[in-house]
Task: structure prediction
Amino acid sequence: MAAPEPDPRPGPTSGPTSDSEPDTGPGPGPDTPPGTAPGPAPAARSGPGLGFGSGPGPRPDTDADSDTDADSDAPPGPEPLTVPSMSAGPDFGLRPWEMSDLPLVREAAQDPYIPLITTIPARYSDKAAEAFVRRQWDRAATGHGYPFAIVRSRDRRPVGAIGLWLRDLPQGRASIGYWMVASGRGQGVTRAALRTVTHWALHDLRVPRLQLFIEPWNTASAHIAEDVGYRREGLLRGWQQVGDERRDMAVYGLLNSDGSADGRAVAED
Result:
């Protein structure tokens, strides 16, 4: 898995990478369609031109006792995003999260590692699982990123998650995190999903730089990242809280101008 960010945190055999995103408060209500913002909203972004380097960032903290209108000079927040459905080859697909994905959350909650590095509930309940799904909708609705469920084509069964997280997009970079439950491992799912999101982010969304954060012991996830074209760039000591301890993370990067290890275009199938 690649560590998720704020649920940017997923990769083991294809476990989570460290970029899964943290809790960001309540999401849209249960009747809100997945992948869309609730209520009237500006046009959603799902294509190129996300405005890296010049796009608006989050609103700054303001003094609650100020007599001035705190929002009058504040830049607008991120616009809502529409999470697309995409093919990840003949065997897998990516789509927005749905309330029907609770069995996937249940299986992920039983994994010894996934709840430590993502916001998957460590103790499963339908209520906690529904809140997790709503958080994924909220991340798109608030413009923080694109959370996808990874689905097996032959039976439409969800087997994992991958997210493209845009917190640092104004600086020209984004993070990817992913995780896979045990029943989905060993089938090439993670590689297909990572290749698809990487290609989409670099070529359709035109993100200049993508990065992954992977624990040094997680050689399976590291090999997958390198197969797709990511390069290990260094070790970040004590980078992330995992369970009860701070852990090191290896950082892997891929630039829009890079080629993959075998000389093909980045993320080319």
